[in-house]
Amino acid sequence: MWRYTVRRILQMIPVLIGTTFIIYAMVFALPGDPIQALAGSKPLPQSVINALHERYNLDDPLVVQYAKYMANAFQGDFGETFYGQSVTSALESRWPVTLKLALVAWVFELVAGVTLGVWAGLRRGKFTDRVILGGTTLIIAVPTFVVAYSAQLLLGVKWDIFPVAGTQEGWVSYILPGIVLGSFSLAFVARLVRTSIAENLRADYMRTARAKGLPKHRVVVRHLLRNSLIPVVTYLGVDLGSLMSGALVVEAVFNMPGIGQGIFQAVQTKQGTLVVGVTTILVLIYLFANLIVDLLYGVLDPRIRYE
Amino acid sequence: MRRWRGAAPLFAVVAASSLVLTACGDDGGGEGDKGKTGGTFVEGINEPDNLTPGFTTSSYSSTVINALFDPLTELTPQGKVKMLDAQSVESTDQQNWTVKLRKGSKFSNGDPVTAESYVDAWNNAAYGPNGAAANYYFANIDGYDALNPEEGKPKEKTLSGLKVVDKQTFTVKLTGKFSDYPLTLATPFAFAPLPKEALDNPKAFKENPVGNGPFQMDGKWEHNQQIKVKKTKGYTGTRKPKVDGVTFRVYTSDDTQYNDVLGGGLDIGTVPANKVKAAKQQVGDRLQTIPAGTMDYLGFPLFEKKYQSADLRKAISMAIDREGIVKAVYDNGFKPMKSLTPPIVPGYQADACGEFCEYDPAKAKALLKKAGGFEGDLTLWFSNADPTYEKWMRIVAQNLKDNLGINAKFKKVPDSDYLTTLNEAKQNGPYRNNWVMDYPSAENYLASMWGVGNRMGWKGKTHDKFNKLIDEAKAAGTDSEREAKYNEAQQIAIDEMPMAPLWNWQNFTIASEKLGEVPIDSYAYDGNGVRIEDVTVK
């Protein structure tokens, strides 16, 4: 298992270099002059454009730009934004927000999703199952920003249960946005668990467990749930990454200065260094999440072994 | 709808008209009897790009810089120039200006404000290699070209037109006569003084700027979250604040700002145009509307053969239903214009454009006939910065088809590429043209659009008589003479119609119940038009 883990980590290095280059190239290929776009609706004097082009290596060919960027990155300098803020400090201020938000959403979808899924799966075809199926379909169908604004208006403005927006009130500020962000995935998790549970209910080992006279909760938790979780764990692992990168809408509505907004603004203003800085960390999260998921398979199903 | 471009919004000075001021405040400078002194409030902004004067033109940066700095002059709520950090700004020939500083002015770190505080800051921003965003604000000072060559390193490091006379006095020599110069100096994000530490350690200063204004930083700039300022201890200027402090909270969505005001988390916020109707019913006169300095035009590519006839350009202007567009796209939030300058500019003539900006399909058709008709398709150019651009361009296209029988196509350019497109004169058809005011003078609109070295005419032709009138206006000693000359110049521009005026933007600001007086006018350099020093908390 150790050899396997080390091998997987070593494999990440070429993946990282490849993805950063592709992302850098994609930002490079966006049309327009980022410096000119910085100035809004008025043209900048040529001398200023020249100075800023030189400062950010914008006149170099793609490969040279990328090489300069990587050379600095290996020395711990991830460059600066066109507004003169260092990318490292920009990330430092944004990551905690996104991490907290994603964590709240993730825990919510895990707990609520698995609970609803098990419930529906055990009562397959009955009324509870129908309600849960219908409810999750509705959540998947409604666009995030509608859910977000409705939740904000009702729970924040009208009933005053949660803060309307911002991160001023610590963890409390993250509850409503977290729930909104997690609700979409929750629907998926619930459906995955439901199908998996319903399928495994008819498995031989279930009949054996029941025949042995084991108490019901033990049958469900130790035998049924453990065997039903593999597809869910895969989904939850990858979803942690998407929760962090895909929170753009929720972050904007609830005014949370996180990574999603950061990427959006960075792409909009064509800031290669910032986009690469943010995405590199996202790529790392995806890679590690996948690794952990793969390792968890072995824990959940002893038949899976790593050499 | 987004008020300004997301990335680096250009400063939009918001504008006044006595008509729209509501019960909340009749006069920015007035003593309030509603509310008392003390307390703090929260105002919504977007993330500023830079808080060092000279290095930004963003309206959100301006909001904060306006709190931290006092420039030489300020504009009253009526748009008149008043001395602020200067004792006097005088000239006998409108070209050589002598600035005398107010005695006792100092930065919040204790350093006195001297002539060097201004001259060094201006030289620093005007020096091309420093890449300062407000660099062009110094282009009318003698010696600017030597600091900003088209290519290569400049030979000079300081503007030859700036001279320190003594600690309290410096002189400015302009490249030409410009009687509105003291008015331009009210722009805090360009012309505010800097303490020595700003030039010695610009990186640290940017995060924690030190100014000579009514407020000082209360902790560092918390990026993407908030900027807190508190009353400056020992402030000796005339903008003495009534509250103890202000928190500028950073938002990315105007809708959220609006909801947060309703929910009590924010005290002053921007209302998106599509929410204005609902807001009026919901909050009454806590919603205030003021005209902005921003104008939209339909520009014509004067370098294209097809668009050489002024009659054709006028025909197109007359075929556009401005009222209909503003109603359909902006819910009447913007005002249709028949002038190249907005109402907040002195000397504004509401009907300067006359019948040529009137929606009149029959006359438009006749003019088109006189111009010899139009061959082939017409392409309308705009950027994707805001979805409303496409919406109104589609109505323009429909207007042209219905009224003139011209088949219009669209060319939507990525926002980041739009300026370059116009700069390189690639647009081969009428295009969206927009001007955000730098300072309330007709010169800022007319000369920038069509004058010599214009920044907005985009390779169009200029007109000798027009240029001569602009120069005469700039040299004029009295307001009435100046305004008359500008209006004469405007008539030429209307007659030639290098661009058709469309509409004037408005700003909508909402205040929470917690606040007492919230004086708002079009000449405050706060992004929401608020005179923050005069705001009171109940």
What layout of secondary structure does this protein have?
The complex is a heterodimer of chains A (307) and B (538).
Chain A: H1 2-29, H2 34-38, H3 46-55, H4 62-74, H5 87-122, H6 127-141, H7 144-158, H8 171-200, H9 204-211, H10 216-228, H11 230-245, H12 248-253, H13 259-268, H14 272-300
Helix pairs in contact in A: 1-14, 5-6, 5-8, 5-11, 5-14, 6-8, 7-8, 8-10, 8-11, 9-10, 11-14, 13-14
Chain B: E1 40-45, H1 59-68, E2 73-75, E3 81-83, E4 86-91, E5 96-101, H2 115-126, H3 144-147, E6 162-166, E7 169-173, H4 181-184, H5 188-191, H6 196-200, H7 202-207, E8 215-217, E9 226-231, E10 245-250, H8 254-263, E11 268-270, H9 276-283, E12 287-299, H10 310-318, H11 322-330, E13 335-336, H12 361-370, E14 378-383, H13 387-404, E15 408-413, H14 415-423, E16 431-435, H15 442-450, H16 464-475, H17 479-496, E17 499-511
Parallel strand pairs in B: 1-10, 14-15
Antiparallel strand pairs in B: 2-3, 4-5, 5-7, 6-7, 8-9, 9-10, 11-17, 12-16, 12-17, 13-17
Protein name (chain B): ABC transporter substrate-binding protein
InterPro entries (chain B): Peptide/Ni-bd (IPR030678), SBP_5 (IPR039424), SBP_5_dom (IPR000914)
Keywords (chain B): Signal
